[in-house]
Amino acid sequence: MAESTPSINGLVATFKTGKLSLKDIEAIFAALPLEIDFIDKNDKFAWFSNQPNRKYPRSVKDLGKSVDTCLPKMMVGKISSIIYDLKSNEKDSAELLINSNGTRALLSFYALRNEKNEYQGTIEVTQDVEHLANLLIDGKWLTPDEAFLANNQKVDTPYNKDHPYVAPKYDKPDHPKQKPVSHNYEKPDTLTGASDDHWLS
Fold first, then answer.
1. Which residues have CB under 8 Å from 169's CB, separation 6+?
2. pLDDT at 152
3. Which structural domain range is residue 124 located in?
4. Which of 34, 107, 108, 120 could form a disulfide with 96 if both were Cys (CB 3.0 to 4.6 A apart)?
5. Looking at the structure, do residues 77 and 101 belong to the same domain, yes or no?
6. Do 145 and 96 reside in the same domain of the chain?
7. What is the per-residue pLDDT across 26-43, written as a single tens digit (0 to 9) for each?
8. 196 shares a domain with 111
9. How many domains in the chain?
10. Do 96 and 168 lie in a common domain?
11. Ranges under pLDDT 70 in the chain
């Protein structure tokens, strides 16, 4: 299959990997759980994704303004330094982890360059990572099932630092007891939990 040449015909954009209508593009940006801003090569605020409930609201009134005027004063120096490093090819990306009003967010910055490696601008991506932080217990990642139990059940087995994970004892729903099918029937060990192999470091 021949490679497509990127183009825009009417309201349809043709990429090397497929076609999207303008409505498709707008819907994709609105659905992504990411807030995306574009700062052009002249450090002007040029575009933002239009999610309905942005953590950091943007206004069309700010379009075309210097990015420095659109940032909180306490962050101007740090973000300006990041953009400078991206423009000068010192870095291709950078990240900031911030805590705003008790909610943690990750700010990622990516340099955009053309096929000649010339700087085209910076993409800033803001992602709420509070739900990820809530999966952490004492510096360890939990599987989704373990995280659910940790957050929703009353655990009566204390945490032991020498054994990173001890399966919690939690109330199970009442079910009619079934008669063993033979005298060799063995009761399942319902308290056996996940091994240390389930941890992701």
1. 155, 156, 157, 191
2. 67
3. 12-129
4. 107
5. yes
6. no
7. 889 988 989 999 999 999
8. no
9. 2
10. no
11. 1-9, 135, 137-142, 150-201
